[in-house]
Specification:
The structure holds 2 protein chains of 2 kinds. Chain A has 10 helices and 4 strands. Chain A is an alpha+beta fold. Helix content of chain B is 30%, strand content 24%. The two termini of chain B are 14 Å apart. The chains are: A alpha+beta, B alpha/beta. Chain A binds chain B through residues 1, 16, 232-233, 235-244, 246, 319, and chain B through 48, 70-71, 73-78, 81-82, 88-90, 92, 101-102, 104-107, 149, 153. Bound molecules: adenosine-5'-diphosphate (ADP) and magnesium ion (MG).
Chain lengths: 319, 237
Amino acid sequence: MSTTKLFLRGVADMRRFPLPQLCTLITVCMVALLAGTGLLILHNVQTEVLRTQGQARFQIYWKVGADMTAVEAQWTDLKRAPGVAEVSTFTPRAALSELMRGLAPKTSGGGLAQSNVAANASGNASAAAGSPGAGEDFSWLEGDNPLPATALVSFNIPPAEEPEPWMGRMYARLKALDGVEQVTYNPTQLTLATGWIALVQKAALPALGFFALVVGLVVGNTLKLMMLARKDEVEILSLVGARAWFIRAPLFANGVVQGLLGSVLSLFCLKFLQSWLRSVLDVPPLFLKVEFLPLTQCVALVLCTTCVAGLASLIAARK
Amino acid sequence: MVHLEHVNCTLGVAQALKDVTLHVERGEFVFLTGPSGAGKTTLLRVLYGDLKPKTGAADVAGVDLMRLRGSQLPELRRKVAVVFQDFKVLPERSVFENIAIALEVRGVSSVSIDKRVRAVIRALDLEERSYAPCRQLSGGEQQRVAIARSMVVNPELILADEPTGNLDSDLSRHLIELFKQFNTYGTTIIMATHNREVLSWAPEARQVHLVRGQIVPPEPGAPGSVLDTKPIIGGRL
Ligand SMILES: Nc1ncnc2c1ncn2[C@@H]1O[C@H](COP(=O)(O)OP(=O)(O)O)[C@@H](O)[C@H]1O
Ligand SMILES: [Mg+2]
């Protein structure tokens, strides 16, 4: 009998043991779902880290009472400077209104996000004009605003540069700008990102191996249980002189199909999970857009589960 | 066909076979008799490679059982067919499939399988049940399926462990006739039984008597023993 025929027989025979097959399928699906969830978290953290990885952010504070015309001219220059990814600027008035909104009791959900956009777009205090939600009145401060003009500048670090010395030099340059009081930046975020990527690269292989081991053990043991149901058949086949492969090939096909079905099913479950997480997390103030796994990872998950399930069934079929 | 010399075999703590020496020639019909627990099943298990003797020398159909590796087991099982008291057929599969399985594992072509299985089904009068699942069959029919499965491959040796144990007298007699017929074609048969009636239906067969794992002379007055002219202890030694 050809191997193909043996495989087909193994698959056809699956319907003769519906209950053990169903149990195995659920087990495979759940283990794959667990692994898929891990991948999903990893993938989304990675995406988030990568998005900010090559960037350095500086917060620039001008002196209180600095000449706004000169400052705004500097802002225009900053926006045009090479390597600048994003500039958010706040005039003292915009900053004050931001502060007022922040201190006000929560009235409207989207308030913060909106005022940010406004400040970005206009670059001046027009956003502060009407602040109906403000519970406390800070208007007495307006004549003598204690807040400085500020800018939040994100740079794309040139790929050829070492990030930290580059950030140090950029810090010195920004600090030297006319009328600038203080510049802050956070090099740890960058270190964090680089560290994370190194960790993922180092941990990915052991984690994958561990996952394969768990799938192998769980699936192997469940398949062993299923093989108890087929014990008589295996015994009879052995009695009439079947070679090992004749007995194992159908069981192997059975394991492969279980792995394939289980992992594909788990991807559907994962899609549900991701949609739900997205609806839960994509709200202020998180705005986390939980993405689904990329195709390559989906394929890898299915392949890995299928291979391990096939292997486990081969081992379980050994006498 | 079967050559056992001073075979000892332990099961758990008990010594199930003690210094068993037995030789069976090609074409012989041998009854393995003895009370329950005497070691008949154990001896048969040794012969089809399910149990490895502890000491001694054992050769079945040219296969050295003392040096039997797992990969050689199929080779032995293709020469030696086994029939059990509890039939060991697959209940969900049809009569045809149950018989065909023995040929499938040997890689016989499906055309040839079809021809040979049909022939055996006709010979054993199972034609009407060909496509019925075995669980719908009576005990006698199931045992005929099991015998058909062993006959269809033309084995050199058939081992039968109390094949009539679950059948009534008429069916048992019919079964023994089948075995005898098959024996006349040259197949060696070793059948374990503790049923004296069964022995009387094949008086020409040689009897080997086991008690507590040892081969002993047959009880006086046992049917067939008077007619048994062949040596009982030590076979043809
Ligand atoms: N799997 C086993 N484990 C331990 N002892 C066993 C096992 N099978 C059989 N025996 C013992 O071996 C002896 C021979 O058993 P068996 O060959 O089945 O006898 P028979 O077939 O003649 O009735 C008995 O004493 C039985 O209790
Ligand atoms: Mg017995």
